Amino acid sequence: MDVQQTVAGILAGEIHVEVPPHKMRPEDSLRDIYGLDSIGFVELRVQCEDTFGIVITDDEFAPDNFATLGSVVTLVEDKVRALSTAR
User: What does pTM read for this prediction?
Assistant: First the structure.
């Protein structure tokens, strides 16, 4: 599963970001480029948890991890990797 493509699909399909997934770049700001507000960030967290079967702790739900598309992708990839090695 391509994490970046999946997260971009969540942004476009579930959170209704107007940028098409194929035009989303890792360095794009979730707030400045995609217009996410506090509700959008919470929705992105929940959608990522549900889609990838992970838990994003309150400490991980921080501005550093949710600043850009790339930072969310890195967080999700790390969580998925940790989950798969724990099994």
Answer: 0.94
